[in-house]
Every structure is written in C-alpha cells, then in structure tokens.
Design brief:
By secondary structure, the chain is an alpha/beta fold. It has a single domain, classed as Rossmann fold (3-Layer(aba) Sandwich). β4, α4 and β5 form a beta-alpha-beta unit.
Length: 208
C-alpha cells in the first residue's frame, strides 16, 4: 500500500485528507500537536482498515520530523508528503503595524521552515518511491493583499516559492502547492471570529 505523511492531521483539512486517503487504501503517518485529538482522529481513520501511525509533536522540532519519516519507513517507505500544518501568527489576525514580530517568526518557523525541514528529511524516501509526491497547502493570502492577512500571507508566499523551485530541482517528483479556499475550520474562526462561516464549505467538501 502507498504511504503518506500528513501534518496537522488531527482536525480540519488534514483530517479530511487522512480520511480520503484511507478510503483509497493508503497507510498513513499523522502528525498534530494535540495528542488526544490526534489519537481520536487516528482511531477513526484506522477503522477503515488502513495502518495508521499517530505521532504527536511539533513540526518545528527536527527530532519530531525525523520520527515522522522513520515511521513512514517502517510502513514501507514514503509516497506522499502533505505539509498541511500551519499557524496564523496572531489570533485574531491584526494589521501589520500591530503584528507581533515574535508571532510572525513563529508562523515562519511552522509554515515555511518546518515544511522545508520535513521535505529535506523525506527526500531520500520520496526519490525512491515509484511516484513520489509533495503537496504543500497554501492560501490565496500568499498572492492577494487582504487586510490583516499580511504576515500569514507572507509565509504562504514563501512556501509557494519553495514549492515552485522544488518542482524545478526535483523533476522526478510530483510537486503541488494548493490553495484549498476558505473552509469552515477552527483556524479560520480564530482568524476572523466575527465572520459568519455558516455558508463556508467544510474540509470534507474540499478534500478530493
């Protein structure tokens, strides 16, 4: 069976992607910071009959990233890396003039540095796979100028550029950077708590 690593997999789009891949017979390594929520998600996904390894931790930690790739190796290798974990940097979002530099640095670490670090760790396995693939979850905030989304958007613009260069440097891999659009998630609610999300698609609506 093919094997995928999905970061930020305990809820939202990460969980929806895990459920979609499990339904197609994929074995999974799932990551999230909240251990309790992650293990509940993993149990639900495993009920579909697939092998699931849940590793709670922070993707900004190099040791945790190595553990994720090691877990995939134990399942037989790595065919797909999904860099989905992300943070806003400020909750709720604020204009750039009010944004904490510490929050921006934290967002860069999670949204840009960690995906690159995990990719570097995973490259040998991805190169060895018959059809190794990388999916980096992006946002239109990386390309459009939305008020209060500047710092978060800057991290996604950086991730988009890393993805584009990776596609050139690794022609043997399939590389996608994907804007899933607005979704009814806890993250979007935290970003803009006054917004009515009742008509916004759910992650399950978006996941292929």
């Amino acid at each position: 069976m093919p094997v995928a690593i999905i970061t930020g997999a305990s809820r939202g789009l990460g969980r929806a992607l895990a459920e979609a891949l499990a339904a197609r017979g994929w074995d999974l390594v799932l990551d999230a910071r909240n251990a309790e929520t992650l293990h509940k998600t993993a149990a639900g996904v495993a009920a579909r009959g697939t092998r699931v390894t849940a590793l709670p931790g922070d993707v900004t930690d190099a040791g945790h990233r190595a553990g994720l790739v090691g877990a995939a190796r134990e399942l037989g290798g790595l065919d797909l890396l999904v860099n989905n974990a992300g943070v806003l940097g400020a909750e709720p979002l604020v204009p750039l003039g009010d944004h904490s530099l510490g929050g921006f640095r934290a967002a860069l670490e999670t949204n840009v540095v960690a995906p690159l670090g995990l990719l570097q760790e995973a490259l040998p396995e991805l190169r060895a796979a018959p059809s190794g693939a990388v999916v980096n979850v992006s946002s239109d905030a990386g390309a459009e100028a939305y008020r209060t989304w500047g710092a978060y958007g800057a991290t996604k613009a950086a991730l988009d550029q890393l993805s584009a260069v990776l596609a050139v440097e690794e022609p043997g891999l399939r590389v996608w950077w994907v804007d899933p659009g607005g979704m009814r998630t806890a993250m979007l609610a935290a970003a803009e708590p006054d917004e009515d999300l009742s008509g916004t698609p759910t992650p399950a609506d978006i996941a292929p």
